[in-house]
Each structure stands twice: as structure tokens, then as C-alpha cells.
Design goal:
12 strands, Arc Repressor Mutant, subunit A, three-stranded antiparallel β-sheet, elongated, 349 residues, 10 helices, Jelly Rolls
């Protein structure tokens, strides 16, 4: 199984009796003003995703109650946060070193913001995502209601030497290698039964020694392995979807490219039933240019055929391919082909 490559470094560390330092200490994650902290052995009534045999740290503040459980593992630091809030609550946190995080939203909606106020996450359903954070100040906003999420800080060694086994992680490891100043977040994947079962095994494992810790590390490796598969599958599905949209566009233009009115951008989107998001998606993933530019290039390709295969006047070709006048056609043709239509015809016939 490819997840072997993720956990290899940690099993080797165990074999040699080495314990790696945490990439970040997130004990400071819940730094709130004017709150009272209690350490308890039992779960609060609003906590539904407990870590077995792990103490609870409960924080009471004006906005409600939060509880937290933490586990330090080999090369990872897991923190489970659950909250019951009567008002919105913003929690600041500061990272002092570049960090990888595996984030799992189990209930509610946690919105993560950068120091500049950029929103990083906002899915409204349970999901898992992998991200890179540079050093800096950040914040998480929890709205009124119930929330549960797990935040797992991962050592850089988790992703060392993965090579071709996990290609979707490339942007993440590149950002870390370059010590990028901006966050890099991979696509969120909705939680499925396989990942949820692995997370349950992690929660229910009682850690009494290195062997138990190694088991949890292996389970985390499997979670990351299945997450990668989800990212790849989602990207493939998006690509297929964009390709189908492009084919629908080509069919439409084949029928209407001569009609200026039918080929205005708003009319195209209306005829194909495309939303703004849909048109942006196909432009980004399949066309390689804006929708407007693609329409022009489609017409230019039709004009090239007429220039080479007929003796029709250039002014007539302009009108037959949907351009408003010869001047507009000539300017567009030169921009696309690097020469005027007359020069193109002379050179290629």
C-alpha cells in the first residue's frame, strides 16, 4: 500500500528509539481572554467525538463553552476541539514555524482566516483537507451553535520522498520547500465511511506506549492515503466535466459562429444554461483562455479554412465568420496568427 511511504520514516525512528520534535506546539491554539479553564476526566455533554482515555480541557467564556483533547504522537500532534456557543467566537492563533496540517471538520462550520483577513475554508459539510501554513497570525471563527473539528500538525518528514506516489501533494510540498509566505490548501474532500472508520480507530486507541503510538501513526497514514485518492478522483471528475462543457460549447459555436447576436457571451451562457461559476470553470480547466477569446479563436480557425480553400474576398470572409466588419476581423486575425489575412492566404496557397 502506498501509505507505507508516509509512515516509513516514523517506524524507522521507533526502531532507533528516536522521538521527533513537534513541528508546532498547538497548546496555545485556544488563547482566549477572560475565560476559565478546567481539567476534567469526563466528556462534556456536548462532546460527541472523544479521544479515549485522554483528559479534557474545558474553557468557559462569555460566548459559551469549548473543550479540547490533545495527543502528542510520533511526528504529529493531534488536537480535538468541540464547542457549544451561544454567540460567534473568534479564536486567534500564531504559528512560529512553517507547518503542515490535516484538518477534519466533523460538525458545524469553522472558518479559518489569515492575518490579512483572507478566508481559507468555508465548506458547510464534514470534510477533510490538507494544508500548509507559513509562520504568522491567524484566526478561526466559530458561529453560534455546535462545532467539532480535529487539527493534526504533521512533521515535514511525513511528505519526504513521496515522489510519484502522491503527486497531488506537489503544490503543498513545494510551498513548504520554498517557505512560501501564503497558505497552500488542497481541495477539501467530503468525509466518507472509510476515512470516518479510520478516524474512529484513532479516537478509540488507548495509547500506553510506543507501540500504540505507532499504530495511530499508521492509521493517520491511511487517512492521508485515502484523502490523496479523493483529491485525485475529484480532479479527474472536474476535468471530465470541463471537457464535456467544452464539447457542448464547440457544438453550439459550430452552428452559430456566423451569427454575432447568438455568439455574444451572455447569449452563449444563456443558451447552454451556464452559470458564471460554470463558465469560469470551463475557461480555467479546458479552454485555457477566456470564453470571449475562445469564441474569437474559433472564428479565426474557420476563416483560415476559407482563406486557403476559397477565393472569397476577405471582407466577405469577415462577415461569414461572424466579425462585425473587415477592420475588426483583420485586427483579430493578426493578433492570433501574427500576420494579416491577405499575407496568410498568399503565404499558404
Amino acid at each position: 500500500m502506498p501509505s507505507f511511504f508516509i509512515i516509513r520514516g516514523f517506524t524507522n525512528a521507533l526502531r532507533h528509539g528516536e522521538i521527533m520534535k513537534d513541528s508546532i506546539t498547538i497548546d496555545q491554539f485556544l488563547e482566549l481572554q477572560d475565560c476559565r479553564v478546567e481539567i476534567t476526566g469526563s466528556a462534556p455533554d456536548y462532546a460527541v467525538f472523544p479521544l479515549r482515555a485522554t483528559a479534557w480541557e474545558t474553557l468557559r467564556c462569555a460566548e459559551g463553552r469549548l473543550c479540547r483533547q490533545s495527543r502528542k504522537l510520533i511526528g504529529a500532534h493531534l488536537q480535538l476541539v468541540e464547542a457549544q456557543l451561544s454567540a460567534d467566537l473568534t479564536i486567534p492563533f500564531t504559528l512560529t514555524v512553517p507547518s503542515y496540517f490535516l484538518y477534519v471538520q466533523l460538525r458545524g462550520t469553522a472558518r479559518f482566516y489569515t492575518e490579512q483577513g483572507t478566508l481559507l475554508t468555508c465548506p458547510d459539510r464534514p470534510y477533510v483537507s490538507l494544508c500548509y501554513y507559513p509562520p504568522g497570525d491567524n484566526a478561526v471563527l466559530l458561529e453560534h451553535g455546535l462545532h467539532s473539528f480535529a487539527l493534526i500538525a504533521l512533521e515535514e518528514e511525513w511528505f519526504a520522498g513521496l515522489g510519484d506516489h502522491y503527486p497531488a501533494f506537489g503544490p503543498l510540498t513545494e510551498a513548504r520547500a520554498k517557505r512560501a509566505k501564503a497558505c497552500c490548501r488542497l481541495a477539501p474532500i467530503l468525509l466518507n465511511k472509510m476515512i470516518l472508520d479510520l478516524l474512529d480507530e484513532i479516537r478509540f486507541t488507548v495509547i500506553k506506549g510506543l507501540q500504540d503510538s505507532a499504530r495511530v501513526v499508521q492509521l493517520l497514514g491511511k487517512v492521508i492515503h485515502h484523502y490523496h485518492g479523493g483529491v485525485v478522483s475529484a480532479a479527474a471528475a472536474a476535468g471530465r466535466s470541463s471537457e464535456a462543457l467544452r464539447m457542448a460549447l464547440d457544438n453550439y459555436l459550430e452552428q452559430h459562429y456566423m451569427d454575432e447576436r447568438r455568439c455574444c457571451i451572455q447569449q452563449i451562457k444563456k443558451s447552454l444554461g451556464w452559470t458564471r461559476h460554470c463558465s469560469e470553470q470551463v475557461a480555467r480547466d479546458s479552454l485555457g483562455c477566456t470564453l470571449r477569446r475562445y469564441v474569437v479563436e474559433f472564428r479565426i480557425s474557420k476563416s483560415c479554412a476559407l482563406l486557403l480553400e476559397t477565393t472569397i474576398k476577405i471582407a466577405d470572409i469577415a462577415y461569414q465568420t461572424g466579425f462585425s466588419d473587415q477592420s475588426h476581423f483583420t485586427k483579430s486575425f493578426k493578433r492570433s496568427m501574427g500576420m494579416q489575412p491577405s499575407a496568410y492566404r498568399k503565404k499558404n496557397t
